[in-house]
């Protein structure tokens, strides 16, 4: 089950005199999420200048590194910061506004009117800060977010200390931040021009809402702009059976094949959902190296369906895991999402072996990073990567006993077990408390916004 | 969405001079789980002699009752203690021992050998105490438990302060506590003879493992004994498609119809799982007033399938919610189980309206109590019922904002949000800490047992 870290991760030359580093995390059970699923009992990490200098047993690290700051983490698991590869953060403001309704009623009588009436820079700022607080305290260090007024989301994530891909939402319809669809291209360019400097912690992106809300021309234009800027292009793909039928009627093709014809499919294209992909589409996405984000809780709650994940994984597609927005989840806990991903496909397929805990944990870490094109820097605890690290306290009844740390992370842990979080070596959560954002103040702001939003509801 | 409490819950005669009661819980948002789903914002409860004396707004309770002890709970939800209607508590010792294996391999190469080798009074005592600690701190106040050496489970639950139905497991096969199946009837009688006195907090029961592991004769004998003692009779029913086929081959009938022919179906029969019930069987169970326990997380993880819950609920069957044992869940968090129940049927049926948050919350409270035949005393916050009450702290990012408390309980909360728990008016959890059991000592005991169990595994 466990393996010691490869010796090669500690340069031999250092074995004589210890090297001083910024930080040593000592004595945790390290779940590296490297490609070989290496775990190290009584492990340690040496961190310097925001990156991982070494991973090994506590003896190996102790022999070779001396930390200016040392955090003792016995009785803790250490894992890479989780990656929420698809959400709409500011929708925390609509969390639980409506549930258990027919999809069209939920969308057209609740969510769209609420967004049209209430989404503005203030809501995006406070809603995104609330989302960042929820995610960081639950062990998510990187998010791939898309919404309106996304420049305000960027500022909020910058302030929170999270790492983020930030995508401005694009539709050929009036949106809360651009009532005139003919100005959408200027709007997209302005988002990129004003994107904040963040020493690499934030990356811009553009998100065409869906093939049924964006014209072929718009999608191709946006993809071209993404190519010019070296950004990932995103879209929702095959979330519901109804949209697949609609697209087939309009263009005579299923969605993935339609996107291929537009020349949009490549390794820098990331599609969310993929619930109704058929075998030919999965093959097409695999051949074009497109990445997917699996969002089971949202797809289930909205009765959209269950993505054919075992087939998607077997095709070798890079798959990340996402919570989707809070209107349809209703939280941003990626541990809960992992538990759902590991369970629902077993029930759907009747096969208890599909979508193992190891595969799911990789979706939330290394493969999420690969889906975002960011795996050279994040997604696993390996030498040279950014020190985005999460610690979980094992001294809880529901995590006792422990036979297999990966089983616990997927089938028993929850975000509330997170005690420490580091992003690029900076401690942003200590003892479960967020250091970067005044969480009480943010909750108070969102409650005030919600009082207005709730008053507009007739339920 | 919210309604004030019926005035009739506060006797008019008391309106003149306040009555002194043991305890007043003030200023919480009270989710009563009464049959009308009443919730009371700025609510309060008056508790005396272990029972609920009054429920109402904080003004109504303040006018009529004076508490010797008052707990201020603004920013909290108050709800009835949750009811875990099906588990095998001591299996906490096997939590995460093996996952993601084919069912027969998991059962016959891991779980059954581990049980045969390690289940003894010591394991049942410590494993059950660990389960009680996990459940109480997660807001479960009543459990319906079945396992071997169940008299030791009874002592553990008694010590923990939980309320419990305790069922000795019966098989026509050698078991860890009775290697000689011909002595099983004496064994069952001895369990009942030695059942501890508990002032009504513990109730005995018998659990025939399944129609495919107990002979018709055994099942009828056990049901007769249950009738003599006024106890509920329990069995696993239609958990897997394979067992349904096996039973049909052996007896020529599907399981529910077979049990009807044995004369076992009545309102004091409680069946767990019901995954593969067909329409005729559901009708049969409804006509005989049989109760069911839904266990979606376990059924999904083992790839057993998804019970036809919308049809079962439409037939008017009393349905409780259960976690099943930790070998197949892998935790005992009934909040997670509620979230799964509310989501999985929407995905399976393609209908986002089925199995609403309100229905699911009732499964975990009032309908769970009805399934156990205990609803005259527990399951809702109503006058005259036992004061089994849970408080949840709303001052968390993932519970902000709040439009509908029932939505949050099912779709966003987790067991870790529980701050206070009372059983029969006794405070057993304060600030998330269990008062009745030395949780650190219990975890240490279980870790020692697990070191031996894990050493016996070849994985």
How would a textbook summarize the main sheet of chain A? Answer: 9 strands, mixed
Number of domains of chain A: 2
Average pLDDT metric of chain A:
95
Oligomer type: homodimer
- Helix amount of chain A, in percent? 25-40%
Gap between N and C termini of chain A: 52 Å
How would you characterize this protein structure?
Helices cover 36% and strands 23% of the residues of chain A. With 459 residues, the first copy, chain A, is α/β, with parallel strands linked by helices. Chain A folds into 2 domains: 7-80 and 388-434, Urease, subunit C, domain 1, CATH 2.30.40; 82-371, Alpha-Beta Barrel (TIM Barrel), CATH 3.20.20. In chain A, strands 1, 2, 3, 4, 5, 14, 15, 16 and 17 form a 9-stranded mixed beta sheet that branches. An 8-stranded parallel beta sheet of chain A has the order 6-7-8-9-10-11-12-13. Chain A has helices at residues 58-64, 103-118, 121-137, 150-160, 184-193, 216-229, 241-251, 255-261, 279-287, 296-301, 309-314, 334-349, 357-363, 366-371, 405-411, 439-455, and strands spanning 19-31, 39-48, 51-57, 65-72, 76-80, 82-87, 140-147, 163-170, 202-208, 233-237, 269-273, 291-294, 319-321, 389-393, 418-423, 426-430, 433-434. In chain A, strand 8, helix 5 (184-193) and strand 9 (202-208) form a beta-alpha-beta unit. The radius of gyration of chain A is 22 Å and the shape is globular. At the A-B interface, helix 3, helix 10, helix 12, helix 15 and helix 16 of A face helix 3, helix 10, helix 12, helix 15 and helix 16 of B.
């Amino acid at each position: 089950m466990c393996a010691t870290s490869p010796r090669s991760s500690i340069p031999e030359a250092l074995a004589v005199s210890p090297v001083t580093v910024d930080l040593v995390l000592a004595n945790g059970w390290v779940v590296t999420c490297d490609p070989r699923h290496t775990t190290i009992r009584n492990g340690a990490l040496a961190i310097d200048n925001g990156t991982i200098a070494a991973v090994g047993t506590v003896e190996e690290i102790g022999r070779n590194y001396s930390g200016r700051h040392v955090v003792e983490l016995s009785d803790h698991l250490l894992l890479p910061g989780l990656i929420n590869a698809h959400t709409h953060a500011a929708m925390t403001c609509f969390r639980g506004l409506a549930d258990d309704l027919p999809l069209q009623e939920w969308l057209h009588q609740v969510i769209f009117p609420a967004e049209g009436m209430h989404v503005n820079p203030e809501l995006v700022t406070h809603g995104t800060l609330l989302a960042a607080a929820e995610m960081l305290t639950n062990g998510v260090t990187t998010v791939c977010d898309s919404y309106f007024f996304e420049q305000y989301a960027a500022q909020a994530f910058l302030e929170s200390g999270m790492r983020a891909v930030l995508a401005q939402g694009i539709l050929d319809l009036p949106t809360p931040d651009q009532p005139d669809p003919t100005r959408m291209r200027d709007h997209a360019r302005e988002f990129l021009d004003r994107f904040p400097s963040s020493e690499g912690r934030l990356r811009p992106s553009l998100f065409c809402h869906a093939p049924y809300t964006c014209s072929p021309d718009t999608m191709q234009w946006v993809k071209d702009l993404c190519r010019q800027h070296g950004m990932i292009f995103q879209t929702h793909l095959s979330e519901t059976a109804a949209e697949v039928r609609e697209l087939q009627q309009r263009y005579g093709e299923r969605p993935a094949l339609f996107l291929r014809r537009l020349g949009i499919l490549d390794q820098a294209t990331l599609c969310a959902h993929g619930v109704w992909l058929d075998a030919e589409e999965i093959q097409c996405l695999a051949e074009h190296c497109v990445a997917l984000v699996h969002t089971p809780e949202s797809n289930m709650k909205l009765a959209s369906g269950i993505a054919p994940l075992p087939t998607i994984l077997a095709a070798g597609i890079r798959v990340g895991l996402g919570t989707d927005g809070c209107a349809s989840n209703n939280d941003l806990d990626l541990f809960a999402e992992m538990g759902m991903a590991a369970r629902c496909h077993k029930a759907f397929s009747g096969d208890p072996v599909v979508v193992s805990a190891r595969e799911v944990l990789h979706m939330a870490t290394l493969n999420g990073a690969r889906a975002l094109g960011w795996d050279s820097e994040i997604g696993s605890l390996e030498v040279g990567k950014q020190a985005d690290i999460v610690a979980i306290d094992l001294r809880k009844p529901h995590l006792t006993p422990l036979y297999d740390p990966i089983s616990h992370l997927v089938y028993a842990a929850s975000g509330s077990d997170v005690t420490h979080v580091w992003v690029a070596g900076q401690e942003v959560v200590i003892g479960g408390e967020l250091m970067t954002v005044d969480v009480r103040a943010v909750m108070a702001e969102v409650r005030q916004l919600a009082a207005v939003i709730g008053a507009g509801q007739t339920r």
